[in-house]
Design a protein that fits this description.
InterPro entries: 4Fe4S_Fe-S-bd, 4Fe4S_Fe_S_CS, PSI_iron-sulfur_center. It holds the Pfam family Fer4_10. GO terms for molecular function: 4 iron, 4 sulfur cluster binding; metal ion binding. Residues 101-128, 129-156 form the 4Fe-4S ferredoxin-type domain. The chain is an alpha+beta fold. The chain has 2 domains: 18-97, no CATH class; 103-155, Alpha-Beta Plaits. It is built from 6 helices and 6 strands. It has a two-stranded parallel sheet. A hairpin with a 2-residue loop joins strand 4 (124-127) and strand 5. It is flat, with a radius of gyration of 16 Å. 22% of the residues are buried.
Length: 156
């Protein structure tokens, strides 16, 4: 079983591009390897594009399953409906959108500063050689996570 990191934006893919990863996935599936997708929402950085992100993953026939982190009953209901091809009621969508979220920066941040340059809100800065977030300024847009070369930034 192989668990490749794959999402519509290529967030977190190291040492290659989204296209490179798709090619490797096809090669592995062609060799008879079982696959399940990891990080379909790019560590939460694609939450604003959830349905588009899942549509992308579900369009890839090589995958037997998709690993998705969930914390609440509403998230389970949302994902179950979406993955089974059912419409998601607006009440459930709204409940999931209202869930409290925050930006999480992993301790392996190297302080490269790419996220700081990408942040339009000025919510990120360097302290002690690594990125830190001012949660009062952060809009949870996920743009910073899309440029982090070490996949240190997640919306949780």
């Amino acid at each position: 079983m192989i668990q490749p990191l794959i999402n519509i934006a290529g967030i977190g893919i190291r040492g290659g591009t989204l296209e490179d990863m798709l090619e490797a996935i096809k090669k592995a599936a062609g060799a008879g390897k079982g696959l399940y997708a990891m990080k379909a929402l790019g560590g939460g950085n694609l939450l604003e594009r959830t349905e588009e992100a899942f549509d992308f993953i579900l369009s890839l026939p090589e995958f037997a399953s998709v690993a998705v982190g969930m914390r609440t009953r509403e998230e389970v209901e949302y994902n179950t409906r979406l993955f089974s091809g059912q419409s998601v009621p607006e009440q459930i969508k709204s409940a999931v959108r209202r869930l409290p979220r925050r930006l999480h920066l992993d301790n392996w941040c190297t302080g490269c500063g790419k996220c700081i340059l990408r942040c339009r809100s000025g919510a990120l800065s360097l302290s002690g050689g690594r990125a830190v977030v001012d949660s009062q300024l952060c809009t949870l847009c996920g743009y910073c996570g899309s440029v982090c070369p070490n996949f240190c930034i997640k919306v949780v």
